[in-house]
């Protein structure tokens, strides 16, 4: 059993190095259709990783299979200084800086008030917005430059605490409706680690049970 624990721990260290990726899921802030809400929460994610010493890469993915398209993306500032680049290399995905509408529909989270000024960075899929959005199996990379003296770890902490919020407006559901979502601060277990546990853990459990019977 001790050898098994060491083996699994070693694989987890490989899957989660010091500069590991962090996957965040989204929580709906609108509820126009419960089925669309469920689809969005189950298949839309953002992966965050260090791109350089002073840059962070946000990779938005739509794992599918249900029809849906991320068409607008919003960030609050926190440790983020400015958008450094947009990776539109995935065929069928095309985004530009500046979302329309200016603020995430259905919530005031990204709106400034006199007592609460908010700096918001935003992106919009190019026309036609739904075909050029992030549809099932597609992804979009957005790289941010960091504020002076800020680190990648600060960004992860702020995503978890809510100091940095990411909002997405999603269209193209089968119902022809739309919903808005905000990152919920929950880090989702990276797929490589999950696969390793599935491949190693399950056979090992069976081996342990057989050994106990023996």
**Order of neighbouring strands in the sheet with most strands:** 5-8-3-2-1-10-9-4-7-6
Low-confidence stretches: 1-18, 192-214
**Total count of domains:** 2
Largest sheet: 10 strands, antiparallel
What pattern of helices and strands is seen along the backbone? HEHEEEEEEEHEEH
What this model shows, in words?
This protein has two domains: 1-16 and 191-214; 19-189, Immunoglobulin-like. Strand 9 (166-171) and strand 10 (179-188) form a beta hairpin. The radius of gyration is 20 Å and the shape is globular. It is built from four helices and ten strands. By secondary structure, the protein is an alpha+beta fold. Helix 1 runs antiparallel to helix 4. 27% of the residues lie in helices and 34% in strands. The model is unreliable at 1-18 and 192-214 (pLDDT under 50). The relative contact order is 0.24. It has helices spanning 2-15, 34-43, 152-161, 191-213; strands at 22-28, 44-52, 55-62, 69-76, 80-87, 95-97, 120-125, 139-146, 166-171, 179-188. A ten-stranded antiparallel β-sheet has the order 5-8-3-2-1-10-9-4-7-6.
Topology:
Blueprint lengths: L1 H14 L6 E7 L5 H10 E9 L2 E8 L6 E8 L3 E8 L7 E3 L22 E6 L13 E8 L5 H10 L4 E6 L7 E10 L2 H23 L1
Antiparallel strand pairs: 1-2, 1-10, 2-3, 3-8, 4-7, 4-9, 5-8, 6-7, 9-10
Helix pairs in contact: 1-4
